[in-house]
Amino acid sequence: MKTSRPHSAAGDSKPSDPTVTLIRISEVMDIVGLARPTIYKLMSQPESAFPKAVKLTNSNARGAPVAWVLSEVQAWARARIAARDQVAA
Predict the structure, then answer these.
(1) Domain range holding 31?
(2) Which of 34, 53, 57, 71 has the most CB atoms in a 10 Å sphere around its CB?
(3) Does residue 5 lie in a domain region?
(4) What band does 6 get if pLDDT is binned at 50, 70 and 90?
(5) Would you say residue 88 has pLDDT above 70?
(6) Which residues partner with 23 through β-bridges?
(7) How confident is the model over 30-70, as pLDDT tens digits?
(8) Is 70 a member of any domain?
């Protein structure tokens, strides 16, 4: 299994700031536990509030590289946990 570490915008080896750390789809899938098609489907549904991807190049071609902001993905996962806890209460 391929493991990777989040890449910071600064590219340094210090602990990275999750608000500027970009992660690729494999890391998003690991964090939220969803498959690639489900993630893209959620992105197309505004009511899901799933974070939008950040384009890494100016290309508009299908398959152009994108990434997600780590803190936004974490916030979405926390919101899902909070929603679960509200239903249970």
Answers:
(1) 19-88
(2) 53
(3) no
(4) low
(5) no
(6) 68
(7) 999 999 999 999 999 999 999 999 999 999 999 999 999 99
(8) yes
CATH of the domain at 71: 1.10.238
Q: What span, in angstroms and rounded, lies between the C-alpha atoms of 47 and 19? A: 22
Look at 12 and 83; give whichever has higher pLDDT: 83
Distance between start and end Cα atoms, the chain: 38
Listed in sequence order, the DSSP H helices in 12-88 are 25-32, 36-43, 70-88
Residue at 58 is within a domain: yes
Count of domains forming the chain: 1
The token pair at 53 is 């991807």
Q: Backbone dihedral region of 72: left (phi > 0), alpha (psi from -120 to 50 degrees) or beta?
A: alpha
The pTM of the full predicted model, rounded to 2 decimals, is: 0.79
Cα gap 16→85, rounded to integer Å: 29
Report the C-alpha gap between 87 and 79 in whole angstroms. 12
**Summary mean pLDDT of the chain:** 88
Instruction: Give the H or E element holding residue 11.
Output: none
